[in-house]
Amino acid sequence: MDISINKYISDTGFCSRREADKYIEQGRVTINDNIALKGNRVQEGDVVEVDGEPLKKKKNTIYIALNKPKGITCTTDLKDKSNIIDYVNHSSRIFPIGRLDKLSEGLIFLTNDGDIVNKILRAGNQHEKEYVVTVDKPVTLEFVKTMRSGVRILGVYTKKCFVQQEGSHRFRIILTQGLNRQIRRMCEALGYKVETLKRTRIMSMTLKDLPPGKWRYFTKDEIAAINTMVAGSSKTEKGQGSEGMDE
């Protein structure tokens, strides 16, 4: 065995590689009692600890789909009383893949598989996320056209995307990028305010038969399908910038 420290940590199911890097930066990770640095390698027989606690290999890989209700925060910080981990209350240590805003609802994945988190969140993987959004003013043709072609937020133009009006104040949008609070920022830039935002699909998975506030395990077929879709994703973290699976 000879793997990078952040991959070793994510492989145990403790957290994603991105979060592992944060632990390393904070000086909370040791290899054989020596403070770990980014880029360190772990060899067979090395003892890796986080906050003085040895990491143990995970037993089973867990994949969960949750229909997140409003008011739940997509954080692993247990000090936050509305955190998603306490809400799901699973016996194993799991973490969300990406996030949905506290006021947003809908489909989100949780897992203890740090590798698949890394692959799904990688920018440029073109994994579709579908949302139904209601806004505070009537949706116009100009609004739909502009949303489709790209809106300037966070200093960049959003990628072209599918947008379809579904009612006087409602539209459906499919994103392949995940800039922070992207849909809300796009609407705000055009003078609209989001009133409700629900993610209805991630890649091939939908909210079908999953009531609000409930969660279920992926089926074997769903796990196989997701793994096939991310098979081409690089395992490195090159290009893993601000994009991911935010709304």
TrEMBL record:
Coiled coil: none annotated. One of its GO terms (biological process) is enzyme-directed rRNA pseudouridine synthesis. It catalyses: uridine(35) in tRNA(Tyr) = pseudouridine(35) in tRNA(Tyr); uridine(2604) in 23S rRNA = pseudouridine(2604) in 23S rRNA. Its EC number is 5.4.99.-. One of its GO terms (molecular function) is RNA binding. Pfam families: PseudoU_synth_2, S4. InterPro entries: PsdUridine_s_RsuA/RluB/E/F_cat, PsdUridine_synth_cat_dom_sf, PsdUridine_synth_RsuA/RluA, PsdUridine_synth_RsuA/RluB/E/F, PsdUridine_synth_RsuA/RluB_CS, RsuA_PseudoU_synthase, S4_RNA-bd, S4_RNA-bd_sf. This is Pseudouridine synthase. It comes from Chitinophaga cymbidii.
